[in-house]
Amino acid sequence: MKPPRLHLALTAHGFGVLRAAQWAMAVVILGSLLSAGWLWQDSRDLEQRAILYEQAAERLHDRNRQFATYARQEGFDVSEQRNQALAREVAFANTLIKKRGFSWTRFLGDLEETVRSQVSIASVKLDFQGSTITLAGSALTLKDLTAFVNTLENHVAFQNVVLSQHQVRQDEKRGSRRTAGSKNRPSRFVEFQMKVSYRPTL
Question: Is 17 left (phi over 0), alpha (psi -120 to 50) or beta?
Answer without folding.
Answer: alpha
